[in-house]
């Protein structure tokens, strides 16, 4: 048993569940790994199986060695028994091993004895050992003898090996559920479950100790959790933001709820020193489950039924007009993301303001230090963003990201920095979900962010830079066309420089997007994993949403766009993503502030939609007490008066003139005010005769 709680672990999972990637991440911290391949080589006529094997080979780092045991299934036990305590072995997988075991070329063979030998070798193995095996016992019983023999043998092997291992994990649709041991992994599930969650519910035994430090993972494509905190975002030649490069020992950025200042001198103005990117108090979901941020991730989708049903319900509400108009989409979005036809207004809201400048001509026309002033202003509870956050009771978290290199001459980030930024953004979303936040607002305030977002849109949507870059306006309100042309040229040169580069998500972030777009992408992915909706505000968030299409197409369904602000990049990105802005106010108060200005209206709409009953004609109830007045052909508008004499009413008297003497009564409704029986009046019985 190793010091961190396990020496052998069995990773179970179905086809394409992510079990192999998870197993690879568990051993990624090892300097060398012996990869034990159990499957036989693909036949010459099976190109698809050959492609699968090739994909597995390509994922292995160069430092790993491969050892095949397909020629003799008994050899696997010998390999495990002979491994030393300083070695790390990854066996992938037992399904291939059972296939070889049942092959007629190896018959007659004692399957039960061979499986028992393997279990004994696992139990006595001195090396760190990870075994992968498919779980096929959850489907129907095969209809062929050979199929039944395979499932029976594999089930027996899984059971025996699981009993021998220190830990067992089941990977289902990208989610890891630890089955053994039970004590370190309680069944407590966070309030908003996602496929890749943090905390003890899914913390693997290899990561249960205090060594989990956060998102700064580096190394090969499947860098594992043990590498957390080793890398730093800042790179030589790329100056960092406040606090410089990443430091795993520093705390996360402060989260505070701004309040309107009582007096100007009552506002704290000191800027916190240092900004953390990797906190020791929170582990990323990929640290807990071993998954990595990669293309084609399977993240949750909003409820496909709750949204349409909530909009249908709006048509039944007891409102005098035609309803909520285009704001019905807000109700449908909230219903789908909350999984109920009567969604509640977003109570806990957090604004993530990303501050990181882009160097070079991307920031042409920007006053030096202006973005840093805006960030300090937000921290001090001043400015439009902080004031609107105070009005709406929203939390505000200012996140410093290191500056991005000039896109026109070099990549804005290294590949390692992109990985760190994605994981850090994911962790920010995880922290918000764990704190009970129900809506994230994503904004940015760095210099050159519009040009970086435009470059991402050009690369991902086929746009032209002049079409998505709006005019540059100086502090004095004048249009600076020279600065605008420099920004367009920077985007053009960056696209020309990368014309032969891949256009995958991480390549786009490294070459063009920079730190703020990369962190924003991680935020969207992490929020999607935790079923946390995000309100986009500005080009950075929209550009990040464009990048997430390659990583996890589900992310855009958790995004809401309140107002496009008249920004051409936001309008184009929203059109490509299928995000229809709820409003057309063309607000331009700064990223994040525009969304907060619209938030009270959206909250009111959700509260109204949840509180109103159905129309009485559709089965809705009345709030008034039952009407006990007699039925008449016409409504009775009379005001009640006291029975005895008293002061006359000041209201106008709309009574019809009465006949002077007895006569037939009217067949219509009596609209007269009831008269008292005082000295100036005479009581009249129902027949019209005067009493007495």
Low-pLDDT stretches are 182-250, 262-291, 624-637, 642-652, 659-692
Main beta sheet: strand number and arrangement? 7 strands, mixed
Structural class determined from secondary elements: alpha/beta
Count all strands and give the number. 13
Fraction of residues in H or I helices: 25-40%
Q: Provide the residue-averaged pLDDT.
A: 75
How many H/I helical runs?
19
Provide the β-strand percentage band.
Answer: 5-15%
Radius of gyration: 34 Å
State the main characteristics:
692 residues, alpha/beta, seven-stranded mixed beta sheet, six-stranded mixed beta sheet, 13 strands, globular
Description:
The chain is an alpha/beta fold and 692 residues long. The chain has helices spanning 19-26, 47-59, 75-82, 94-101, 111-124, 145-164, 285-289, 306-314, 328-338, 370-379, 383-392, 415-434, 449-461, 465-468, 481-497, 505-529, 539-551, 568-577, 593-611; strands at residues 8-13, 34-37, 65-68, 88-92, 128-134, 167-172, 175-180, 255-256, 349-355, 395-400, 439-444, 534-536, 559-561. The strands form 2 sheets. It has a 7-stranded mixed sheet, sandwiched between helices. A 6-stranded mixed sheet has the order 8-10-9-11-12-13, sandwiched between helices. β2, α2 (47-59) and β3 form a beta-alpha-beta unit. α8 runs antiparallel to α9 (328-338), α10 runs parallel beside α11 (383-392) and α13 packs across α16. The longest helix is centred in the C-terminal third of the chain and has 25 residues, at 505-529. The radius of gyration is 34 Å and the shape is globular.
